[in-house]
């Protein structure tokens, strides 16, 4: 819990893309951190999530995705919160602890912040998830 947030100059880079940040390699006595899953095999898979909403023009709440895998594990990730609008595409990089090869289902959840009769008319027009070297 003492590692983050990173300093203004950014977190040190290690691994596959470390060579893209030569200025960070010049520092001495540097501490390096790596995001891992809580359980074995400790790997996380970076995924880039794009969500376009449909329904009401604007509302308050949060959007979460729940990942399910073949072993019965689930993990929920917040994608956006606060004022939500169908005019925006919500984009976020997520370090998912569930292997994409073992993912059986991804559930879209919207939690409303205030009671409204309009809540049932909000949905996802599209949800795109990209995984690979950059997400």
Key phrases:
single chain; Lipoxygenase-1; 3% helix; 135 residues; mainly beta
Q: Helicity range of the residues?
A: under 10%
State the end-to-end distance.
25 Å
Give the number of DSSP strands. 6
Assembly type of the chains comes to single chain
Mean pLDDT: 76
Within CATH, the superfamily of one domain carries the name PLAT/LH2 domain
Q: Beta-strand percentage?
A: over 45%
Largest beta-sheet characterization: 3 strands, antiparallel
Radius of gyration: 18 Å
Structure described in brief:
The chain is mainly β and 135 residues long.
Describe what this molecule looks like in 3D:
This is LIPR2 protein. GO terms for molecular function: lipase activity. InterPro entries: AB_hydrolase_fold, Lipase, PLAT/LH2_dom_sf. Residues 1-42 form the Lipase domain. The protein has one helix at residues 22-25, and strands at residues 45-54, 58-69, 74-85, 89-96, 103-112, 123-131. With 135 residues, the protein is mainly β. The chain has a domain at 45-131: Lipoxygenase-1 (Sandwich). The strands form two sheets. Strands 4-1-6 form a three-stranded antiparallel β-sheet, with no helix packed on it. A three-stranded antiparallel β-sheet has the order 3-2-5, with no helix packed on it. The radius of gyration is 18 Å and the shape is globular. It starts with 21 loop residues before the first helix and ends with a strand. The mean pLDDT is 76.
């Amino acid at each position: 819990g003492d590692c983050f947030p990173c300093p203004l100059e950014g977190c040190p880079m290690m691994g596959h893309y470390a060579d893209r940040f030569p200025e960070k390699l010049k520092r001495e006595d540097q501490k390096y951190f790596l995001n891992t899953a809580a359980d074995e095999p400790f790997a996380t898979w970076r995924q880039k999530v794009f969500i376009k909403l449909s329904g009401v023009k604007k509302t308050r709440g949060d959007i979460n995705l729940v990942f399910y895998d073949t072993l019965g594990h689930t993990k929920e990730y917040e994608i956006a919160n606060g004022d939500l609008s169908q005019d925006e595409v919500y984009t976020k990089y997520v370090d998912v602890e569930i292997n994409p090869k073992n993912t059986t289902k991804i559930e879209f959840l919207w939690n409303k912040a205030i009671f409204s009769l309009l809540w049932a008319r909000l949905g996802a027009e599209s949800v795109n998830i990209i995984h690979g070297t950059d997400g």
